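The following record pairs a protein chain with its ligand, cobalt (II) ion.
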Amino acid sequence: MADTAVNLESEQYENHREAGEILAQVREETADRVEVGVSHLEIAEYAEDRIRELGGTPAFPVNISIDEEAAHRTPSIGDDSTFGEEMINLDIGVHIDGWLADTAITVDLSGNPELAEASEQALEAAIDVIEPGVETGEIGAEIEDVIDGYGFNPVVNLTGHGLGHWEQHTTPNIPNRAVSQGVTLEVGDVVAIEPFATDGGGKVTEGSSEEIFSLEREASVRNRQAREALEQITGEFRTLPFATRWLETDRPEMALRRLKRQNVVHGYPVLKEDEGYLVSQKEHTLIITEDGCEVTTAN
Ligand code: CO
């Protein structure tokens, strides 16, 4: 007889769990090091090196978003920015053979603990309603309710997501507000849930800077640096996002400009609220099980 039941003990899920365990440890150790005056680059490299030391691979560059920024900022080559009295979101990923874990935490040095708490509590409430058959719209409604209750807005154009093999963002989307057309989660689904709370309007827009990229299509390129960069991308990062500072070729910025012009890679612009507002974020990865879910990135 064919058995169509999902085997949650298979290698795929063991890899997800191992990635989650490494990531939970790295998240806590990294967050502990964030202080006024510490450099962004030092924090990003600390986390990425620590992931490798513990036997994982960074699934994407550590995102360090400050104040109104919500996602997609990572230090540039030689970046000398340091932390101030700000709201800082760290979003970190690990993979083992392409099986991912994705987590985020807010370190609040700005004196707005309720805003950080709002996304944390929203995530807890979302996790509480998760079981096989739950609709993603219902998860979004929980998130929205909790954040509303704090007097803040969820960021509605950022969502949680499924995690595929070598794919950081796949279906289903997990909305951060109530929606009527959701999908249901089933045993074996691996999803990242990531509420963002803000004292702004709740919609992020694209900024002008890009430090994170991923492969769009393979192509032959003539320029030496572009070719070397592309070899590293296809061999090492495959379809996962990478940072300019991860490229080993000389003149990596020029190589990326060429690859972008040929639509071989695409960039992820920094996403942000309007200036003067703050954004907090909390994220866990979980596996849907028969009786609820297993949080792979739990402390
Ligand atoms: Co995520």
